[in-house]
Structure formats: C-alpha cells, structure tokens
Amino acid sequence: MDKLKCVNGFESWHETHYQMVCCIEDSRDGYNVVSDTLEHFGSGGLMELAYEWTNEFEELHKGQEWDGEWYDELDKFWEKKFKE
Hints:
The chain is mainly α. It has one domain. It is built from 3 helices and no strands. It is globular, with a radius of gyration of 13 Å.
C-alpha cells in the first residue's frame, strides 16, 4: 500500500473512504470485482481495494469544490470500476 494521499485534505479522504467501504461491503455478493478480490486475496484485498479506490477518486477530483454532486460522481466512479 502506498502512503496515505490526502490531496483534498484528510476530511475529504476519510469521507470518501467510508463510502468506498460501504460500496464494497454492499457488493460482496454476486460476481464482480469485489467478490473476485475477496476470493483471491481475502479481506486484506478488500481493504487494499478500498484504499486504492479512495486515493484514485480523490486524485481524480483534486481541488474540486462540491456543490451537491459528490454522490453522483461516486456512483459514476463505482459504475466504471464494476465494468472494468
């Protein structure tokens, strides 16, 4: 795992990470990137996935001032990840 990247500050990283964990937890059933990661790497793989996705999302939106569209952007990010 890389060092913690709080490009938008810790509060933003923390909120994003919480939502990533929730999404991953909700997606453990069925066949998808989450269940595949769990099968091959266990819970440690899921922790790393949440960490990587959080850093990626934060970097994509570096310096972004949110005006109510944060959840919409998270949804788009998740949809993209589940299609990869």
